[in-house]
């Protein structure tokens, strides 16, 4: 039923599927606690996954004849068909054992529905904007020279793009305090973030937290950067050190794949949460 949704995911490459081979992150451990089950894994207890439209035009996820609920006990509902199909696909893709820590879209929906931290939209925007002051690509090293040049060559083009795109000034600094971000820049981004609905903002804040960067997150959401590019740029210094000194066997790949999976899921969640049109029925056909 959900096979053709793969085409809907194509812009995000294979990043989402890679989460199946990755260990849990600190965020995922929190999400696991705040999930649809108390255990990290449990046996699959349903055969069929389907979606249905309920009251107010919201979409529900059905596991056999049972309606999915949030950890807070609310009926699990999403605002549009596209997101419902994506979440249903996560549940349908699980095999004999349910791995909740791979179900990033389900977790983000639970967060948006239950709002466990009880924050409003302004508080979420303020939390996201704090990353501007310590943005990954705004803090520059003074040595070694090779890393200085690498940061300049790889990060400056993205920084210049976002400054031109939003008509703002951000800059960079080698000071531990980071660059001095003008209030006008913060206000511009505040207004832009305020244009997102609460669901999309939940996903965007999640992406910013993963990349530790507003600049890279916006670059990816605006499709200026791919998921793979944004993740590599966020890990530029770490990748430099690995090339120079080597890495612990397998650890580097696991970390990379998991970060890609979480970042891709967050970006997909932003776009699907902003989707207002109904997905054509042909997407539901095998």
TrEMBL record:
Pfam families: ATP12. Transmembrane segments: none annotated. Coiled coil: none annotated. Gene3D superfamilies: ATP12 ATPase, ATP12-like. It is a peripheral membrane protein. Keywords: Chaperone, Membrane, Mitochondrion, Mitochondrion inner membrane, Transit peptide. One of its GO terms (biological process) is mitochondrial proton-transporting ATP synthase complex assembly. It is found in: Mitochondrion inner membrane. PANTHER family: ATP SYNTHASE MITOCHONDRIAL F1 COMPLEX ASSEMBLY FACTOR 2, ATP SYNTHASE MITOCHONDRIAL F1 COMPLEX ASSEMBLY FACTOR 2/ATP12 PROTEIN, MITOCHONDRIAL PRECURSOR. Interacts with ATP5F1B; involved in the assembly of the F1 component of the mitochondrial ATP synthase (ATPase). Interacts with FMC1. Belongs to the ATP12 family. Plays a role in the assembly of the F1 component of the mitochondrial ATP synthase (ATPase). This is ATP synthase mitochondrial F1 complex assembly factor 2. The lineage of its organism: Eukaryota, Metazoa, Chordata, Craniata, Vertebrata.
